[in-house]
Amino acid sequence: MPSKKTLILNKEQILQKSKRIAYQILEDNFEEPSIVLVGIADRGYIFAQRLQKILKDIAPDKEIELIKVTIQKNKRSLEATTDIPVESAANKAIVIIDDVLNSGRTLAYGLGAFINVPLKKMRTAVLVDRSHHQFPIFSDFYGLKLSTILKEHVEVRLEEFDKQEDSVWLS
User: Fold this and answer.
1) How far is CA 87 from the centre of its chain?
2) Residue 1's pLDDT is what?
3) If phi over 0 gives left and psi between -120 and 50 gives alpha, with beta otherwise, what is residue 131?
4) Which strand ranges, in their side-by-side order, compose the sheet holding 154-157?
5) What is the model's pTM?
6) 21 against 77, higher pLDDT
7) Most exposed of 34, 37, 66, 100 (fewest Cβ within 10 Å)?
8) Is the model's pLDDT at 11 over the cut of 90?
9) Burial group, residue 150, by CB count within 10 angstroms (0-12, 13-18, 19+)
């Protein structure tokens, strides 16, 4: 028996939410000369790349850096690697970015990669916040806050990764 899928966000809505998140990040970091976006591989990093492009368009004089964090999600302890040294974020404002916030484990692991780096401030941004937090992690910026039951699944499709049109589905 196939499960029923419901479209939650289409391509235009994802773009609209992304722009709103970018403006919120800019407003929160208005006085900062640079912002470091930390995208959690894979879809979180793609979302971070999109936010970086929007931020560069609306604030061309602000430095917007991008770091990719790869996390071993199936491990019970933190194992994270970055594409550039985490020390490059020292004394800067960072935003940890993922596609969906469910339990908070992935974002907590992403934050953990920067635990020994002195930061000005740390925020989180997600496209969809499901509100099933098991960790004390909350989204500072989100596109959609969605109340779901635990057995439901949120699937984010991003063209660059999934080779399908951008969409968010609930099944």
Assistant:
1) 20
2) 43
3) left
4) 6-9, 167-170, 154-157
5) 0.93
6) 21
7) 34
8) yes
9) exposed
Q: How far apart are CA 90 and CA 49, in angstroms?
A: 20
How many angstroms separate the CA atoms of 121 and 102, rounded?
Answer: 23
| H/E segment holding residue 23 | helix 11-28
CATH number of 18-170: 3.40.50.2020
Q: pLDDT tens digits, residue range 99-146?
A: 999 988 899 989 999 999 999 999 999 999 997 778 889 999 999 999
Contact 36, 93 (CB under 8 A): yes
pLDDT tens digits along 102-114: 988 899 989 999 9
- Taking the C-alpha atoms of residue 95 and residue 49, their distance in angstroms, rounded to an integer, is 12
